[in-house]
Design a protein that fits this description.
Helix content: 40-55%
Distance between the termini: 45 Å
Strand content: under 5%
Shape: elongated
Radius of gyration: 24 Å
Number of strands: 0
Structural class: mainly alpha
Amino acid sequence: MTATAITRPRAKNLTITVDAETAAWARRQAAEKGMSVSRLVGEMLHEKMVHRIEYDRAMQYFLSRKPVQLREPGESLPTRDEIHDRARFR
């Protein structure tokens, strides 16, 4: 499901409690964007939901893939000096 595939059903009321500093910040942000605090918070939550859905989908895809063999069996790992040898990159 992509961000565009998520449809917004009829709005539901939700009561939240925040501290005074957070409420003031939310009012300023909403005013800057020309919207209500309710709509600002709703859009922020919707965006968070979409990102989480996309993240979960990507993680599921990543975990479903076969592991990649990084070295041959029996092949030794590089030494610390080999890993940190920056001279070869100069």
